[in-house]
Amino acid sequence: MADIKVNIAGLQMQNPVMTASGTFGYGIEFADLVDLSKIGGIIMKGTTLQPREGNDYPRMAETASGMLNCVGLQNKGVDYFCSHIYPQVKDIKTNMIVNVSGNSPETYAECAARINELDAIPAIELNISCPNVKQGGMAFGVTCEGASQVVRAVREVYKKTLIVKLSPNVTSIADIARAVEDSGADAVSLINTLMGMSIDIERRKSRLSIGTGGLSGPAVKPVAVRCVWQVAKAVGIPVIGLGGIMTAEDAIEFIMAGASAIEIGTANFIDPAISVKVADGINQWLDRHGCSSLADIRGVI
Amino acid sequence: MKYCKDLKIVGVEYPSDGYVLLKLTDKEQLPAINAGQFVEIKVEGSPSTFLRRPISIHFVDVENNQMWLLIQLVGEGTRKLAQLHEGDSLNVLFPLGNGFTKGTEGEKVLLVGGGVGIAPLLDYGRQLKECGACPTFLLGGRSSRNLLQLDEFKKYGEVFVTTEDGSMGDKGFVTNSSLLGESSQYVKNKDFRISCCGPKPMMMAVAKYAKQNEIPCEVSLENMMACGLGACLCCVEKTVKGNVCVCKEGPVFNINELTWQI
């Protein structure tokens, strides 16, 4: 058996597979269907300082090899997370990571500061790349200045592993990644969804309530692999790759492009146990190819 | 407890043009299933069908350890399901959602179904009868070709039908039936309630009737879904408690929980 343990800036993981925010709830929704303790890390639903109702229905449209969503960060706020959800997830035997979002550097920081106090949460993933909210989200992730502002504000108050999730809806994702690294991020994860649109031609209306949404699934994988490859060459911090991973072979592509770990998102909807299958599959692939660890293949492209 | 497993197909029937009835079984005993719960099916070999397909559970044959799915063929995914054969397996995530209100002895429940929305009402009728309740069915379709499994429904209660073209039963919608009229024996009967599943305009019309006549009423929604587990928050419906997942908090809602303008 190959060694597939990874360490992302102090975050120890038994394998490189995490579940992506917004696709795996708080983990507990999947407890009947997959052994959560065998997943490298679970990145929970996006959490904001204040509760958010999200966007109106319809929020989802199936597309060729993927789907669009415009959920819009529906969540009950960080207070509810701390009082009601944290007690339910704190004893799950894997890295339970909170995805944090906001609408100003201050609200990001305040939310992160609250999470910083929770002993069983070893890391946060900062969402500066949600395409589905009017304020905040992607607005910060599409300029180096905006991204730096948010990361600096959070870095001041957040003492554990700080992952920053990047948007592909930019001219140069490598520039944003460098700005985020310079501002104190411990790692970057990419890509968030690609902004897209789908139209019901009979009704002459968008299939999504707010017109546009974020595209995910295998359709975006080549874009994601390219982004990971560019960013891994541009920064010194670990890169976590995601975007359309359905199989262990997909995950290996990201690792060869330079990813230290990967996240699985939309595939959780097709197979709730896919994360553990991919982790096992990576191990088997390495064994078959005579590799003793992920380091043998990481960034070989 | 939810499961994601390959179930074996032991029966494939075509009760009418545009429908398939799949009968599934498992080596192990099927879990307890509330009437009104649903499954999410993985469709193999259909490139345009990326997500699982949510399908209501039509009937649970406890004696033979079977679960039946009555599926209308509306797109590539469902048409692919109609090509399955006995002996094939189907990957099923189940049982999902809350299901209809459990019956109590002696209560009268009118089960109103429209189109393929009649599917979950068969198992509900069975479960109601088993606990001593008295189900009556009011089933509507475009024509007699859309009113399926009537002999099965008749095992559990009286069946009334309406068709839009008048080819069977009363002509019109279910709401044109005398069962839902001003002089209906059911109006303001204390032990009476309605459970409804069908197209949204039909459910809204039934809900409006129930509200006007102060009859307790629940409806089963079919918002577009992805995960089926309450994780992705795609299938939300606006309720008095805010946006909630139809796949987890529903699909069955009391009409008083919804914010429908009726």
What does this 3D model show about the protein?
The complex is a heterodimer of chains A (301) and B (262). Chain A has helices spanning 78-89, 105-116, 138-141, 144-157, 173-182, 221-234, 248-256, 267-270, 274-288, and strands at 6-8, 11-13, 17-19, 41-47, 60-63, 66-69, 95-100, 123-127, 161-165, 187-190, 194-196, 199-200, 205-206, 213-216, 239-241, 261-264. Chain A is α/β, with parallel strands linked by helices. Chain A has a single domain (6-56, 72-195, 216-296), classed as Aldolase class I (TIM Barrel), CATH 3.20.20.70. Chain A starts with 5 loop residues before the first strand and ends in a 13-residue tail after the last helix. In chain A, the strands form four sheets. Chain A has an eight-stranded parallel beta barrel, surrounded by six helices. Chain A has a four-stranded antiparallel beta sheet with strand order 5-6-14-11, with no helix packed on it. Chain B is globular, with a radius of gyration of 18 Å. With 262 residues, chain B is of the alpha/beta class. In chain B, the strands form three sheets. In chain B, strands 4-3-7-1-2-6-5 form a seven-stranded antiparallel beta sheet. Chain B has a seven-stranded mixed beta sheet with strand order 11-10-9-8-12-13-16, with helices on both faces. A two-stranded antiparallel ribbon of chain B has the order 14-15. The chains are: A alpha/beta (301), B alpha/beta (262). The interface between A and B is medium-sized, with 34 and 31 residues.
